[in-house]
Amino acid sequence: MKLSAIICALAATSAAAFVPATNTRAATSLEAVDRRNAFGQIAAAGAAVVAAPSIASADGAVSSTTITKAKVIYGGRIYDLKAAVESGDFAAVASEKNAFILYNSGAYPSAKLKASKAAAIEGTNAIFAAIRAKDKSALKSAYSKYIADNGITDVPDVDPASGQGYSSEFGYTRLTKAG
Fold it and tell me: What tens digit of pLDDT does each residue of 95-119 get?
């Protein structure tokens, strides 16, 4: 991206070097390009390019699509831990720690959702406190509370014979059961 900015700056400065001078007398071909004016225009164009913020730096991190994607992908992974929680498999739940972290940050990314994110992090901390304590009943209750508080549901199975699961490689249901 910086290379394209440099190329644009060079193109702008080279174009500025050939802008006709603003003097009123008739100029010959040698007087048309005054070196001092040309370098002044090049420096001004270069300063404008450097001072301008990057135009294509939007990351699109917060949108309803990315929130839905986080809820489907990571919420599905969290919901799939139900059998492991019921059986008391602490290692299986601990192995999906990143799903909890990514769900919390992806489902509640904006400042408006700060309270919900804090509650979700508190629920995650309760789950992992139960894992560290090797307490099955605390794990079950913390997991159930986390699922209920965050509205996490199972990703539905989609039969490819009866419907389309995803439409492209970029569809967020591609790597889930719905895909």
Answer: 989 999 988 888 888 888 888 889 9
CB atoms within 10 A of CB 30: 7
pTM of the model: 0.59
Rounded CA gap, 143 and 124, in Å? 8
Residue 17 is inside which H or E element, if any? helix 2-17
**Domain of 135: which CATH number?**
1.20.120.1740
Please give the structure tokens belonging to residue 150.
Answer: 């965050």
Q: 32, 35, 13, 36: which is closest to 23 by C-alpha?
A: 32
Q: Is residue 59 part of a domain?
A: no
- Looking at the structure of the chain, the number of domains it has is 1
Domain that holds residue 70: 64-150
